[in-house]
Design goal:
The protein is mainly α and 337 residues long. The protein has 16 helices and no strands. Helix 2 (30-45) packs antiparallel against helix 4 and helix 8 (159-173) runs antiparallel to helix 16 (316-331).
Amino acid sequence: IGLVMAVGMMMKVVGNPLVAGAADRMGERRRPLVALAAVSCLAFAAFHMAHGFWPVLLVTMAFFLFWSPIMPLMESLTMHLGRERGLNYGRIRLWGSLTFIAGAWGMGWVLTGRGIDLVYWSILAAAGLVVLTTLTLPDGRPPKAEGAAAPILDVLRDRTFLIFILASGLIQTSHVVYYAFGTIHWQKAGLSETVIGGLWAEGVIAEIVLFIWGDTVVRRIGAARLLALAGLAGLIRWWGTGVTDALPALLVLQALHGLTFGAAHLGAVHFIARRMDPAVSATAQSVYGAAVMGLGFGAASWASGHLYAAHAGGAYLPMAVMAGAGGVIAYALRRRS
């Protein structure tokens, strides 16, 4: 299972820049999104007929190859329409967080006392709903990428962008111990499942609060400074989570998720929108996603297992160092965004 999931994540690294580069060359967003969503839905449907390691692996590769580019293309389209029509990105993005809460809570309720196959049918239905929603998207068309070089080469030549990727990667991947072992660690500390669920929900609610006023915050302090603030918050949050399991302290520390994730995400999206040419915006978003959420999370997930096995809660302390380092690097970019 671990190998299948790892290969699926690596498809993001391969597929995202290729698909986004094609979208940039076409100057298209809506039609590629419709096609990707439709093929992804068909690929996921094939799991119903996949039995055994190799069929499951091949279907997983096909699904992630087409599913993974959807988010960076959607981010690119949203930022393009934001500039064109004055839309507030943060207040659009918060619906993703609200849906996460509703889906996590709702599926727990739906699955109680029912067969596990319902997971498959629920995800397939959700994938079909994504296809329908892409059909309703505005047909925003940024400029086409011109020139002989592939859009990804234009993106990778920007040294400031590469430094930004490093900063964002350190801050975002510092969450990996929390994502992988947070629930297990709190269970071992004696916290109930209800309390743990509340702590996770608190974190998502905190990011929603930031998203409500996110665009105003970015205008006032800048994308790079917001990213640096996320790094500082990560330094405090992961150090605190590593040294104490006391519930009052955890309630305060979990509220910082609005900064460690929310501010990092907002800062990254706005940095890309301001720094990169709109003609290569989809490629830039895809490189960011592939490097940070693909390579970064893959490597950090592997390391986190060894860290947690050896040090339990102490595994959070290297995460604090990573977040702090990312914040310092991001602050150095404050005049370039």
